[in-house]
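## tool: complex_structure
## caller: assistant
## args:
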Amino acid sequence: MQIQFLGTSAGQPSKMRNVSSLALKLLDEINEVWLFDCGEGTQNRILETSIRPRKISKIFITHLHGDHIFGLPGFLSSRAFQANEEQTDLAIYGPVGIKAFVLTSLKVSGSRLPYKITFHELKPDGLGLVMETDKFKVYADKLDHTIFCIGYRVIQKDLEGTLDAEALRAAGVPFGPLFGQVKNGHNVTLPDGREIIASDYLSPPRPGKVITILGDTRKTDASVRLAVNADVLVHESTYGKGDDRIAKKHGHATNMQAAEVAREAGAKRLFLNHVSARFLSRDIKQLRYDASTIFPNVYVVNDLEEFDL
Amino acid sequence: MQIQFLGTSAGQPSKMRNVSSLALKLLDEINEVWLFDCGEGTQNRILETSIRPRKISKIFITHLHGDHIFGLPGFLSSRAFQANEEQTDLAIYGPVGIKAFVLTSLKVSGSRLPYKITFHELKPDGLGLVMETDKFKVYADKLDHTIFCIGYRVIQKDLEGTLDAEALRAAGVPFGPLFGQVKNGHNVTLPDGREIIASDYLSPPRPGKVITILGDTRKTDASVRLAVNADVLVHESTYGKGDDRIAKKHGHATNMQAAEVAREAGAKRLFLNHVSARFLSRDIKQLRYDASTIFPNVYVVNDLEEFDL
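## result:
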């Protein structure tokens, strides 16, 4: 599982940072990639990565501001173009209005996609568990921005324990159905009468990862709830230390507030994105340093950076 | 007057070429820049130029395919952001539908622009002279694509002759109102009775430039009419020599057909754009070479290249 940041700028692109998008790469787990937000030019950024658009099976939109959605029609259209690849369907989760935007754009431009899009439009009173498969769950909660904005908590379900096959074989268990029973946690009795206790040969289930990805927001309790014990929290940092007032006015957070959220939630790692184009590289170092006084394991991410989770 | 190509790819962006847009820089003439098409990521490309978005006063859209319009909402939104600059109004010309697309995008994203946009929606039966100011005229005609697509002919009106002030002064004409009268083409009588013939001191009016910018199209008579005696013809070249059949099928032209249009129209210079991502740099040289056998003054343009007109 990796996270790759495709656009880390706030509001407008700069030469160094494009507008918002990030990819959660679940290739090892489910052979899919999930996109969070899709600002203009996301498809151009994807060209600079190893991500194959067809692998993108779900897109989660945090809110409808242009710097988070204007890349959707182009991405969806270009995704249809790749010849010789299977046309895989796609699901889009986001605030009510996202469907109208996408369908109007595709209709006006005469785009007919060879795959199906399922829209899951979310309302403030219809959040909570918004998606569940056998391996993942996604919870959503309302943040505190100038328009309805969503934070997502992606929970990987606990992973089965792995079987110590060598030890099992050494104990005289023949390959075959008995192996499978032990792997599924059942004790078995061998032909010679010995009982094999499954838990002796199975590592305990491993807890799945928790990844919290927030949209634009002021500091708010919902952020803390979404990020409780998260392995990774991705939080906006449109403003820096001391900018609390202007951040609040514009519905955003400072690096310090993001760090407070991470600390209060007991998150393990904090990535700051949605960084104002005002910040130069020296300021970025300062953003990180200041935040680290509250939450040490913090990093201000750049476009195209990828992290193992 | 300059032309700068912002995106020269066909259909989808590649690493080297973004989707369609070009800027006609009329800064010396009227202190404005006109944009032709605005594919996704045009605002990112503009960041790499000296163009100030506020100077863009008119946008001409050739057709509604996504690779020609999906950059409009983002460009229009970001154009509003620039602090400390005058908020200048903007006009958009393009096929019926462009207004719905722009307004839906701005509405869904909650964007409220601090400047005014005037839409001039064009229909196949409402083309011809679509814009006229004291210095420029723009004609439009219908091309032959898979959807309604427009070609534009930008005509700079003839420029007044310049006054040979030094010669006039040497003839004993004092600075002042008499100078102005001669500049305006009127003969004047000096206090000493001598008559000054204006045309002796004025260079003849200089013909203005003609710039023809076409959208996606098969080879068609309308292209030739739009490009008659043009100083510059910008023509798509989605396909190469020998690809006539597939070009026709998809509503596009080859480099050879573009060269034929330039030759038949008596244009002076041909720029080929809208180049398929299939073409590598070696192929691009071949595209140019092949076209030059029909029309020698041809060039396959790249993103960000600028030419004096």
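## assistant note: The longest strand of chain B covers residues 136-142. Chain B has a mean pLDDT of 95. Handing back to user.
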